[in-house]
Amino acid sequence: MIEPKIRGFICTTAHPAGCRENVRNQIAYIKKQPATKGAKKVLVIGASTGYGLASRIASAFSCGAATIGVIFDKPASGNRTASAGWYNTAAFEEFAHAEGLYAKTINGDAFSDAVKQEVIQMIQKDLGKIDLLVYSLAAPRRTMEDGTVVSSVLKTTGEPYTNKTIDLKNRSVSDVTISPATEEEIADTVKVMGGEDWQAWIAALDAAGVLDEHTVTVAYSYIGPSLTHPMYLNGSIGMAKKHLYETAQTLTARYPNVQAYISVNKALVTQSSAAIPIVPLYISLLYRVMKQKGTHEGCIEQIYRMYHTMLFVDPPILDTDGCLRPDDWEMRPEIQEEISRIWAILNNENLEQYADIDGYWEDFYQMFGFHIPGVDYQADVSAEVQIPSLSE
Ligand code: NAD
User: Fold this and answer.
1) pTM value > 0.85
2) 230 lines ligand 1 (CB under 6 A)
3) In this structure, are residues 76 and 82 in contact, taking their beta carbons and an 8 Å threshold?
4) pLDDT tens digits, residue range 98-144?
5) Ligand 1 mean position to 353 CA, how many Å?
6) Is the model's pLDDT at 271 over the cut of 80?
7) In angstroms, how far is the first alpha carbon of the chain from the final one?
8) pLDDT score at 8
9) Ligand 1 pocket, 220 CB below 6 A?
10) How confident is the model at residue 391 (pLDDT cuts 50, 70, 90)?
11) Number of Cβ within a 10 Å radius of residue 327
């Protein structure tokens, strides 16, 4: 039996049967929607959890695409379970192969030249070219080619910023002050989460001649309402996202066969967003308000709607800055006005009434394969699961 073990923002165990069910549910959702006439040969960087996994599932099961996924996950060893992304990927390949869909995975550091070359060889051998690259990396650090490690920080810029935050474990709200990042920390965060590595991927793929004459590439970003701006949009991570946006423009201008987009996605519970101060409180209010209005979506609903109604339509539906905006429902005035109203009066007495803390925790557990309806958690289960293409 495998049980959740929570340490700070993460769960150090993952459940293979739960993760498999999670992937199966996402595929089932996609199959209920109309198919998408989209990309056919897709590379997803950061394909094992969150938005990247949803992109791989939507590519395969809505567009019928062959997929190569780059992941950075751990298999089970000793008495440790594998990471959730490992189990998700094993399940994804199993379901894709069962339908005759090509699906292979490379487990390694996407920032490295070695992994880029490995992917290129795989494309050359199996697919010839790709027509979509989804860049969905969320990493706390990056190892440079000379071995130096650069870390990203989640801080504000300019002045210290104080606002409410949630302690999810104790289900309480308190004030937190975020200190500003130094110039060096901002530059490092841009190195890790900005567009440099995305551009390096496109440059390497282009030099190897494995980009289709009409290649689309998409990277993910977040904007959110003004109450999160000091922490996100104008914080160190926002500086990296600004660089990502500029990179999209550079790529489109530099490569005649490449159209690069930023997709601004909804705030959701993922392993990455759980670590950002203030944002989890906002997410728990957002979940409550959007569920009440019947417009709540998870990663798979977001990516499907982005693919089907914004990206793979002719012409793509973009905002005035040229971005895809599946965060449109989150940003609706009636949603944001309600959150602002609640935010102003929120305290420890009314927190449970306004914040969807249970919904937050359910999503959190489910990311690691726990609390998934229909899974027998009392049953004996082996933590050792193979990813088919990695054991060939
Ligand atoms: P996530 O943590 O679920 O996914 C990150 C993925 O990157 C995982 O598959 C992980 O294995 C992979 N990864 C990390 N380091 C790697 C490395 N060195 N090499 C290869 N793979 C590596 O996070 P997510 O929230 O889905 O984030 C994906 C993107 O979406 C990010 O750019 C994030 O900023 C953006 N985004 C997230 C939200 C949100 O609320 N979660 C909202 C809008 C945009």
Assistant:
1) yes
2) no
3) yes
4) 999 999 999 999 999 999 999 999 999 999 999 999 999 999 999 99
5) 31
6) no
7) 28
8) 80
9) yes
10) confident
11) 21
Q: CB under 8 Å to 254, separation ≥6 — which residues?
A: none
| 326-359: pLDDT as tens digits | 999 999 999 999 999 999 999 999 999 999 999 9
Cα distances (angstroms) measured from residue 391 to each of 84, 93, 105: 18, 12, 10
Ligand 1 neighbour 55 (Cβ under 6 A): no
Q: Of all protein residues, whose CA lies closest to atom 29 belonging to ligand 1?
A: 136
Select from 272, 283, 323, 366 the residue to mutate for testing ligand 1; criterion: most ligand atoms less than 8 Å from CB: 272
Secondary structure in 3-state letters for the chain: CCCCCEECCEECCCCHHHHHHHHHHHHHHHHHCCCCCCCCEEEEECCCCHHHHHHHHHHHHHHCCEEEEEECCCCCECCECCCHHHHHHHHHHHHHHHCCCCEEEEECCCCCHHHHHHHHHHHHHHHCCEEEEEECCCCCEEECCCCCEEECCCCECCCCEEEEEEECCCCEEEEEEECECCHHHHHHHHHHHCCHHHHHHHHHHHHCCCEEEEEEEEEEECCCCHHHCCCCCCCHHHHHHHHHHHHHHHHHHHCCCEEEEEEECCCCCCCCHHHCCCHHHHHHHHHHHHHHHCCCCCHHHHHHHHHHHHHCCCCCCCCCCCCECHHHCCCCHHHHHHHHHHHHHCCCCCHHHHCCHHHHHHHHHHHCCCCCCCCCCCCCCCCCCCCHHHCC
209 torsion bin: left (phi>0), alpha (psi -120 to 50), beta (else): left
Decide: 279 in ligand 1 pocket, CB within 6 A: no
Of 369, 360, 281, the C-alpha closest to 81 is: 369
Tokens of 287: 């979940």
Give the separation between CA 252 and CA 271, rounded to whole angstroms.
30
* Catalytic site residue from 29, 51, 220, 232: 232
Q: Is 29 a catalytic residue?
A: no
CB atoms within 10 A of CB 318: 15
pLDDT band of residue 160 (cuts 50, 70, 90) is very high
- Cα angle 322-273-277, degrees, rounded to a multiple of 5: 110
Q: Does the pLDDT of residue 145 top 90, yes or no? A: yes
Dist CA 145 CA 109 (whole Å): 11
